[in-house]
Prior knowledge:
The protein has 15 helices and twelve strands. By secondary structure, the protein is α/β, with parallel strands linked by helices. Helix 6 packs parallel to helix 7 (202-221).
Amino acid sequence: MTKLRHGAFLPPFHPMNENPAACIDRDLELMQWLDRLGFDEAWIGEHHSAGWELISSPELFIAVAAERTKSIRFGTGVISLPYHNPLMTANRIIQLDHHTRGRVMFGAGPGLLASDALMLGIDPNTQRDRMAEALDVILRLFKGEIVTEKTDWYTLVGARAHILPYTSPHPEVAVVSAVTPSGGRLAGKYDLSMICVAATNPFGYDALAANWKIANDIAAQDGRTMDASRLRLVGPMHIAETRAQAFENVKFGFEPYLNYLNNNQPRFIVPDGQDPATWFVENKFGVIGTPDDAIALIERLYEKQGDFGVFLQQVHNWADFEETKRSYELYQRYVMPHFSKANRPRVESFDWCTDHRDELSEKRSTAARAMFEKHEAEQKAALTRPQKGREAW
């Protein structure tokens, strides 16, 4: 089985009564915290409307975050390809690949918010096709090809990237997948990584194995197999020392989060009289609980999906910042080692000592008695030896 890696998926979600500059600064601080804790990667979203998701350029955010961190990798999660000329996108990613010395990943998508597309005069029905067109061109530019191509939304004439990527042959490329098969089709066609952004949503959960199968089936047509280590599943969670504490923590921001998601598209309609956080957990949309609950969620994803490479926590600001940081710390302390089995040698050593306790106790007692006997013998020998001073007198 693939060694599980751990990361974060940062849309981000920020309520509209907070200072926006402070919100972005806090996102950067969170990236530093994740780096310090040893998380493997973080993906940064692109949004232009609806008020909550403040980052319009994941590349700019990543450039700043990379300067403040040491080892965590950053991905665009995602660049909405229909909003950009593909040559411009390719050049920005290549430049960022050089800035970060290979710590950047390129995540591509069609654009999630219809409000973004409408502001740009783009028909949402065209976005998935346009994403596929742009992705094909960008991959060719990454390889150093010269592209002349005209579509109904961009024109390229002898276009080329005038520097090639720092990473050979190019940064890791990922496509998003939620419910529709479009992400799986592109991943299989181009041998790309895949990010399942709705892995714990019942609709996305039900589509997990099907979309990965689509990717594998299309790859098989070209004689290839998909690499499960490049499959990423996203889910929201907040953990604390107890479930009661976790539920208390999320009173800070859970309901506004749910209201924002429903404002864009009604998806999480809580029945009258039910507590939203309790309803959310009971319907298995995510975790509000303990490290054991986080482990159980990931195990459930394994049961549905099979092998995968990375679990990405959706960053959501359900709790205040200190409790949010604490949640990631608890994840690092207890969830990561459960899946890496980093403590297995320690447990085996402890258990071996338990199994041999009587034998070890006897050996310690025997060694202690031997030391006392040796000491007494040496003392007796010292008393019976002639003393030089007396002999001389």
